[in-house]
Design goal:
Order of helices and strands: EHEHEHEHEHEHEHEEHEHHH
Largest sheet: 5 strands, parallel
Strand content: 15-25%
Distance between the termini: 58 Å
Shape: globular
Number of strands: 10
Strand order of the largest sheet: 3-2-4-1-5
Helix content: 25-40%
Number of helices: 11
Structural class: alpha/beta
Radius of gyration: 25 Å
């Protein structure tokens, strides 16, 4: 049975909706004016606030004019394994637990996933207060296609591992969104250029929603040149255009792929259907090409 995460009173977060719950609460990614009314109410009324950085939380609530009445707990990547069980026990006892990270939505490239995973396994209530998102903001501002996209987070720091991850994305047609530290932006863009070519379109989004917000758009070669010539600062999101669609070619170009599947035990008609769908050619023409190749006919 699917868990129902609807609140009893969506307009008033101070009204309890059952025995204990976890609320993933999105925080501003830069401009504190983006904090929602629901976030403010939750911070003021929750029994427990689990924060990635308690100092950042204190600065946030001071800027919002909020007094946190509940218990504040530090919860981050280095202690979440040890503290998750304790927090889940508090929720079982009927407490409302609010999870916040330094910026954006918890569990998305931030602590929170382990807590949600544990809550789901235990059958505890989990809901969210949506809000600012660096991923969606960067995507919307990039000028690149937004109808299909994927979020890849941070690439590996080591060059070999980073190259391997990018090789996996070689044929990715969706727009890709990455995070990167400013001091690693130049080597990242260089690796992207080497893998995807100098002409692939890219946007570097810096300090989103903050005073010095900057979005640079251009080719991979242009943005790499910019990174080489400038001292990059601030929080960075990089948005990369997906791979261009390849021409389907002729049915004869894909006979070998069909034969490879057949060699793995797939029936001929099923192999033809699979390859034809993947490469966007006619099944009938591909089937005829396979038979022609087997009989040696032109």
């Amino acid at each position: 049975m699917r868990e129902n995460t609807n609140t009893e009173d969506a307009g008033n977060e101070s009204v309890p909706s059952g025995p204990g719950r976890i609320v993933l609460a999105a925080t501003p990614i830069g401009n504190t004016g983006d904090a929602s009314t629901r976030l403010v109410e939750l911070l003021a009324t929750a029994d427990i606030v689990a924060a990635e950085d308690t100092r950042r939380l204190q600065r946030l609530v001071q800027s919002l004019g909020v007094t946190v009445a509940g218990r504040i707990i530090s919860y981050h990547e280095h202690n979440e394994a040890a503290k998750t069980g304790e927090l889940l026990d508090q929720v079982r006892d009927g407490k409302t637990l609010v999870m916040v990270t330094d910026a954006g939505m918890p569990a998305v490239s931030d602590p929170g996933f382990r807590l949600v995973e544990g809550a789901v396994s235990a059958g505890l209530k989990v809901t969210a207060v949506p809000g600012p998102s660096a991923v969606l903001t960067a995507l919307a501002l990039s000028g690149l296609p937004t109808d299909r996209f994927c979020f890849e987070g941070f690439l590996p720091r080591k060059a070999g591992e980073r190259a391997g991850r990018l090789a996996e994305l070689d044929a990715e047609r969706r727009t890709m969104v990455f995070f990167e530290a400013p001091h690693r932006l130049e080597p990242m863009l260089r690796a992207l250029r080497e893998r995807f070519g100098p002409d692939r379109r890219v946007a570097v989004c810096r300090e989103l929603t903050k005073t010095y917000e900057e979005v640079l758009r251009g080719s991979m070669a242009e943005l790499l040149s910019w990174a080489e010539d400038n001292e990059v600062r601030g929080e960075i999101a990089v948005v990369v255009a997906g791979a261009p669609e390849q021409a389907p070619g002729t049915p004869e170009d894909h006979v070998a792929a069909v034969n490879e599947l057949v060699g793995q035990g797939v029936r001929l008609k099923e192999a033809v259907a699979t390859i034809a769908e993947d490469v966007r050619v006619s099944k009938r023409e591909l089937y005829s090409a396979v038979l022609a190749a087997r009989t040696g006919q032109p």
